[in-house]
């Protein structure tokens, strides 16, 4: 072990004694002063003459940088790189950026506060500190207060340091030898490794970007890039209107979306329910009626909504004489097209699902208006 003394440590019994000792020891200018206490002691930073922490300023700057980054990023995406109108907003509407700007501000600020404090300002982790190897360290973490005079250069006078601490009333004094090996896993080291990894990622990213950009321009790959084609959402002089993307040919019908062939509820009266009245179809109709219709028309379809009165419109009573006399097609039409306050369900229900619901509405109507013949038929079964 080397003979060099890294620091001289003096123990005090109370925080008051520690605070009193500091000015006298400081006046002797023997080395860097540092205090070690089991809990924060008010006034210690002032007595040691510590500067105000720059952390607040760092957090402010990084927070503002975060807000600017988010704004720039969102503006670039929505107004420069891909200006598409969504939700009726003009490209670059800053109001919509605020939530993400807020988030990124907080992100930058909190990471700066946490990492800046630990790594940059406190220089943690720091496992090689001589005080950690001292005899006094246990007492310091329990109930004693230490003041250490730490060597700043080779001219450190350990004897004078001992004398100064004793004169200031230290109850125990310990000289700490300089450790034979430097501290390991320090903040410097971690920052350097992180910086190395970051640099490697940036370099690798640029190389890959370069390779991907360059690769297609080298033959024969360039032939794929160069061949004539229409790009989606790109201008193209091939068509007169200059659009690369085309509208479907008039009259195009998407698979599974055959038009009804009728254009009013009255015309729809001619449509015939293509589904048989099997238990499976009725069960499916019942399931879908529960999900899609019941909240407005009520479980019995009599227009008593399960919604509260807060739903302003008046859903029709499907048990009324008029609707019972509707042909199936007119009910199908309403489900498909909606009517006044009733929304269209075309997007939510397939054609077959709509017809299954029509069957189930018929069953509900019949259940509420059973005739003697119905009852006899049921008894006979
Ligand atoms: C959001 C509430 C709501 C939902 C959900 C809803 N309806 Fe309606 N429905 C209404 C209202 C309101 C009316 C009355 C429309 C009018 O005539 O002004 C109505 C009317 C009707 C009518 C009578 C139309 C006419 O020609 O008078 C039928 C039949 C009907 N609904 C069936 C259904 C079926 C079947 C479903 C489930 C697929 C359903 N509704 C889902 C609100 C709703």
What do these coordinates show?
- The protein has 381 residues and is α+β, with helices and mostly antiparallel strands.
- It folds into 3 domains: 5-177, no CATH class; 186-246, no CATH class; 265-374, Orthogonal Bundle (Cytochrome Bc1 Complex, Chain D, domain 2).
- The chain has helices at 15-28, 44-48, 55-81, 98-121, 137-142, 158-167, 187-214, 221-226, 265-268, 279-292, 294-297, 321-324, 328-337, 351-368, 372-380; strands at residues 5-12, 32-36, 145-150, 172-177.
- A 4-stranded antiparallel β-sheet has the order 2-3-1-4.
- Helix 3 (55-81) packs antiparallel against helix 4 (98-121), helix 10 crosses helix 14 (351-368) and helix 13 (328-337) crosses helix 14.
- The longest helix is centred in the middle third of the chain and has 28 residues, at 187-214.
- The model has no long low-confidence stretch (mean pLDDT 89).
- Heme C is lined by residues 292-293, 295-297, 313-316, 318, 323, 331, 334-335, 339-343, 345, 357, 361.
Topology (SSEs and partners):
Layout: E1 5-12, H1 15-28, E2 32-36, H2 44-48, H3 55-81, H4 98-121, H5 137-142, E3 145-150, H6 158-167, E4 172-177, H7 187-214, H8 221-226, H9 265-268, H10 279-292, H11 294-297, H12 321-324, H13 328-337, H14 351-368, H15 372-380
Antiparallel strand pairs: 1-3, 1-4, 2-3
The protein binds heme C.
